[in-house]
Amino acid sequence: MSQLHEPQFALHVEDLTVTYGAAPALWDIDLDVPPGVMAAIVGPNGSGKSTLLKAVLGLVAPVAGHVRLFGQPLDAVRNRVGYVPQRSSVDWDFPTDVRDVVMMGLYGQLGWFRRPGAAHRARAMAALAAVGMQDYADRQIGQLSGGQQQRVFIARALVQEADLYILDEPMAGVDRPTEDIIIALLQDLRDRGKTVIVVHHDLSTVERYFDWLVMLNTRIIAQGPVAEVYTPETLRETYGHRVALVKA
Amino acid sequence: MWDLLSSHTVQTVLMGAVFLGLISGALGAFAVLRGQSLLGDAVSHAALPGVALGFLVAGGRELGAVLIGATLSGGLAALSVMLIVSRTRLKPDAALGVVLSVYFALGVVLLSHVQSQSGAASAGLSGFLFGQAAATLRSDLWIMGGLAGFALALIAALWKEAKIVSFDPDYARALGLPVARVQAALTVMVALAIVAGLQMVGVILMVALLIAPAAAARQWTRSLAGMVGLSMGFAVVAGVTGALISASARGLATGPVIVLVATAIVLLSLAFAPERGLLDRALARRARTRSLRADQVLGTIHALARSHDDPAYKAELGMLRARHAAATGPALARLTARGLVREVAHPPETTPHWQMTPEGQARAEALREGRGRDD
Known about the structure:
The structure holds 2 protein chains of 2 kinds. Chain A is an alpha/beta fold.
């Protein structure tokens, strides 16, 4: 395999630049996330949060820079990365049920021409139980509420049994009980040594939920432990003057 | 009515329609789920210049040459759309509209040119506009059967990849699956399905045999396998019915008949499918409205009982009517049937009165606290 580069970080991003049309969406991103933390990426709308995740996952091609996960290029560690895209990125009217969607998390490990079997179904049920959705296994996905959809997507990432979880706005549009379930779950992953990176939009909960913070506005404004990084100065620099420091 | 036709022709048309239904039904399901209906329309219209060129090169109706020409020009059109969308600021629908009309116009020009030449070379060419099932030759069946077999084998082999790529391509890409190649395979197969149907259905209406059965099938099923299977079934029914009707009547083009049959299946499915059908949803909405009105009437009785500090308070019908008008009667009947209220006498008044049962009180309390709504 390729030579390890910065293996001490779960995620290492260097000089990353992404453009949509003329203007850069991400500019000269240098970013390191150590393993075993629960990190939030915050920034105003259009600051490139989702683009950063997509560049890390190889879904958009950068014009410059590189990404390493656990010291290796993405292709070498895909099975160790669980991705939870935005709920709104798919058509929930697709004809399938909850269990089937969760089993999609195993398709990358299954290989060509192999169908999932009983063992895979059991793993899917375990992942559903972890998000409290085991009673919905046979439910059509079109009948789920927003919070249930989100939990199904998280179960689909859990079933991969990854080491790094990357979630794009998992708390957007879900009710409070669902948010509590999701956070408890993510914190449990972190406590078991996994790394969790979340694009987050609610500043009032940053300090309560997360221990690592990345502040982004096309470029990196600040990164590090929440307690050190989350200050009035960095907030002003990230959001302009529109946001006051919210202490939970 | 089969007297008009030799059984040989009928058999050929039937088998062709079955092959065509299988391939277009299966790939139509994926085209619909991936939002590629319009691309299919552009590809089928864009097949016309290829068809005319095939006639020109082969010097007559040679299905192999026609299909190769159609595949090439249809594929070129799909490529043009992709290039326009990725290189310009034109939106996909505009790109599709432009490409569809340009290729079709080119096809009509070529068609006129071929037809202006000797009659032998152009015989059967106009059948590719609206379809002519009766013109299907036994030798054509080998090509159509081969295409259908190839398409179904490929779908079976790539089943889970096709599913995840249709549902959530970004996630599939993040898993490391070769999404672009699976998408390309599905798109090429859609083009092949269209090409396979050109003789029977024609370039103008072929997309309907791709889309209509899949849209109808979506109404009835809860799984991708169910949708693909049912879509194939509907497409076979539409293809066989349409081909036989048109083959038995003189001068009736096959494509429009097939499309009309397929549309009838769609309309029936939209109206009557369980859960998703218009009828079922209207009934469910009515049941919800009635249940809600009953709860409201119960709430009124309960409010009166509370303001009189008497759970067994007898509410006069006139008061309930004042509040709930014509809904009162049906609501009370519904509540009575569920054992939540009962009609009681309240002498000396002779008018009807209504009283909550203990179950009705419990239900009203639950509703007041925001519990007990039927989900």
